[in-house]
Amino acid sequence: MGTYEEKLSILSEMIAFARVDHSLKDSEYQFLLGVASNLGINKKTFEALLNQKSPKVTLKSQAERIVQFHRLLLLMNVDQEQHQKEISTLYNIGLHMGLPPSAISQVLEVMHKYPNMVVPPDVLINIFKAHYN
């Protein structure tokens, strides 16, 4: 999975996204802390990212961008609430990543069909594959 700088950028983007609604709920904090651990980022560095953004690094591969979009989708739904601002922000982040608008919209639609709105990775991947063919 990418460089340490890419990992910091991924986590920084997720923290900013979690704060779109101007708060960071405990469920979001715990989810982000788990992602940090999974990325090999220690708690001290994670805590520092809460106060200062890491420089933005563009993810190179389409697969990395889809995985990041999925992380953001999971983060949006971890508190069992979706606000229009979060949905719009996630849609725009996906566009900035270069993901197909129709695939983003389809993912945001189908998430309501799954428990806790957790779109299984294989479903997400198949949606993006269909839009690239």
Structure overview:
It is a single chain. This protein has 133 residues and is mainly alpha-helical. The chain has one domain. The protein is 67% helix and 0% strand. The two termini are 25 Å apart.
List the helices and strands and how they pair.
Blueprint: H1 4-18, H2 26-39, H3 43-51, H4 62-77, H5 84-96, H6 101-110, H7 121-132
Helix pairs in contact: 1-2, 1-4, 4-5, 5-6, 6-7
Tell me the radius of gyration: 14 Å
What summary fits the major beta sheet?
none
Q: Proportion of β residues? A: under 5%
* Class of secondary structure makeup: mainly alpha
Count of folded domains: 1
The assembly state of the depicted protein chains is: single chain
In the predicted model, the low-confidence regions spanning at least 5 consecutive residues are none
Straight-line distance between termini: 25 Å
Helix content: 55-70%
Mean pLDDT: 92
Structural shape: globular
Number of strands: 0
How would you concisely characterize the structure shown here?
The chain has 133 residues and is mainly α.
Keywords:
single chain
